[in-house]
Design goal:
Pfam families: TTRAP (PF14203). This protein is mainly alpha-helical. The protein has four helices and no strands. Helix 2 packs antiparallel against helix 3. The radius of gyration is 11 Å and the shape is globular.
Length: 71
């Protein structure tokens, strides 16, 4: 599954940098979603959660974050 640079940036923002995992990204995103007031960002994150839920842990580990600023 392909992720846009925006989606990969969001994944990186919501990951545990010491030990990134699919489960942790989804937990962090779901926990923070209710506090977000920007409806466009809520829509992007909801869509991202849907895409992430279709991945396996092995698929998640294959995501390339090298073009993300600050990675």
């Amino acid at each position: 599954m392909a992720f846009s640079i925006e989606e990969r940036t969001l994944i990186e923002l919501y990951s545990d940098l010491e030990s990134p995992s699919l489960e942790k990204v989804m937990q962090n995103t779901e926990r923070n979603l209710p506090a977000i007031e920007d409806s466009e960002l809520v829509e992007q994150l909801t869509s991202l959660l849907h895409k992430l839920s279709a991945l396996t842990d092995a698929d998640f580990r294959k995501i390339d974050f090298t073009d993300i600023i600050g990675y």
